Amino acid sequence: MPCACSNDAWSTGMAMSDAASEPARAAPLQPWRWRLGSLAVLLALWIAATGSGMVSGVFLPTPADLWDAGLELVRDGYKDRPLLDHIGLSLLRVLGGFGLGALAGTALGLLMGWRGWIDALFTPFIEFLRPLPQLAYLVLLIIWLGIGETPKIVLLFLAALPVAAVAARDGVRRVQFVRVAAARSLGASEWQIFRHVVLPSALPDIVIGARLALGIVYGTLIAAEIIAGSSGIGWMILDAGRFLRSDQVFVGVLVIGLMGVALDRLLVLVEHRIVHWAGR
To answer: What is the topology of this protein in the membrane according to its UniProt annotation (predicted)?
Structure first.
């Protein structure tokens, strides 16, 4: 009587043999090709819409006008200030507010996840601040701190803090109890458990929270510069729009987008560097 297991093994071997002898399929297109293709389609639609007169140049400049406006801003600056100064001021505000808010929020979130009484003490404030629109209290910050850099930095700090805190707290809560128990059984102190078990396990959530906080801070910065600013890319966009310089507005939007992508890619590189084990 033939053995069922031998039949199964024979079938498996035949399937593997067929799979090996099957001609290799064409490799799918690389992601960068899809991205270049989408950009090419967008550029073609843009040229067609502006070149045919379907859309007025007041509302949508041609690619040539956008290029000329970019060269003009690089050469002459905007309102007696070089373009790099506007970019640098916006970056300094982002890095200052985001850096302070992410560090403070991460530290607070780690403590909230590690100690229940700290979580109970700060959760009402974090949960109140997190869904609150940042521009709702920008006016109060201006009244309290005046017009200048301080209210912008504080606003960005308050935008980043609750997002980073919630991400760090949830990361600590997701740490497997068996890891903590194993460390305790080996005689590790509470600080050693926190330093060598809890913190590394929570790092993936912390980095994800940092990326989310950066996006919120970046959007908040532009709004803050529009409402209470006299420099920066956000202010430049608003001021150029007053004079119907849509070409300069689009240059500012393009600069903002490229800056945001660059900052996010930087965080992705940091994530791959310090939490390379995530998802494995």
So the answer is: Multi-pass membrane protein
Record the tokens describing residue 116, joined without a space: 């229940």
CB 156 within 8 A of CB 101: yes
For residues 226 and 81, give the distance between their C-alpha atoms in angstroms, rounded to a whole number: 17
- Give Cα separations from 169 to 101, 178, 181, 214, 235 (angstroms): 15, 19, 19, 18, 36
Q: Which of 222, 219, 93 is nearest to 163 (CA)?
A: 219
Q: Who contacts 194 (Cβ-Cβ below 8 Å, separation ≥6)?
A: 110, 114
Q: Please report the sign of the dihedral spanned by the C-alpha atoms of residue 251, residue 256, residue 257, residue 262.
A: positive
Q: Domains of the chain: which residue ranges?
A: 70-274
The shares of helix, strand and coil residues in the chain, as percent rounded to the nearest 5, are 80, 0, 20
How far apart CA 54 and CA 161 sit, in angstroms, is 46
237, 207 Cβ separation under 8 angstroms: no
261: left (phi over 0), alpha (psi -120 to 50) or beta: alpha
Tokens (6 digits) for 86: 């506007």
Topology annotation, domain 70-274: MetI-like fold (1.10.3720)
Q: Which of 96, 93, 91, 134 has the alpha carbon at shortest distance from 255?
A: 91
pLDDT digits (tens, 9 = 90+) for 106-160: 999 999 999 989 999 999 999 998 888 877 788 888 888 887 888 889 999 999 9
Distances (CA, A) of 29 to 24, 35, 38, 43, 250: 15, 10, 13, 21, 31
**What are phi and psi for residue 60, nearest 5 degrees?**
-145, 105
